[in-house]
Amino acid sequence: MTWRATVLTLFPEMFPGPLGLSLAGKALATGLWSLDAHDIRAHATDRHGTVDDTPAGGGPGMVMKADVLARAIDAAAADGRPRLLMSPRGTPLTQARVAELAHGPGIVAVCGRFEGVDERVIAARNLEEVSIGDYVLSGGEIAALALLDACVRLIPGVMGKEASSAEESFSDGLLEYPQYTRPGVFEGIGIPEVLTGGDHAKVRTWRQAEAERLTRARRPDLWTARENRLKTPAKSAEKPRDGG
Ligand code: SAM
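YS: structure for the whole thing
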């Protein structure tokens, strides 16, 4: 079944953008996923195509109108797909959530602009607020592109080698181990011997240790969360990475 993405935006011409190229673009062309970008402005009712208004209570900027956005959302047949609002206030996106979304029927992604959207439409249309990081973009489109890119590559059949996502950063709560390829010596620096010796068990052990070392050093938050999970017997189903 085709994974369906519907994007509601004031800038439909931004889609598929970079997702029309490379793996995602090929998968789009072959129908592994589909993408409809709908113009929110088409749901404005006045002759100026008004989609925003001044914030109640005053303050800078403009707010996207609840009525216009609700009509745009209602016009996009959601058919059970989660409705996500790109929002810096949202739950930070994780690889686990991306995997869930990729294995579902698809998504409806709403892109905010200006100061954001009228709060009432978030509850009225049951929008799940999703953030792609603790920084502020000028609009939800780049956030939606990032979310779609992360999801699409996990759709079965999109990546050349299904296994390649299993060992990536975050897949088991660890960052990925360092990677090397030819030439064997680059600017005087060689490749760790263990990776060229042909002993797959040693390679696996080295990669696991490196993944753990990097995670501990760079992402103590991930490391602690993993330690806590492993301490809980019911949730300790994680297996070491199969680096072979
Ligand atoms: N006034 C808002 C605030 O302070 O939270 C920021 C609004 S931002 C300029 C406009 C839109 O960009 C947002 O409504 C949202 O759709 C999108 N956006 C900005 N940063 C984002 C992030 N980190 N993750 C997801 N979407 C983001």
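YS: worth flagging: The pocket of S-adenosylmethionine is lined by residues 86-89, 111-113, 115-116, 131-133, 135-140, 143 (CB under 6 Å).
IM: good catch. Also The radius of gyration is 22 Å.
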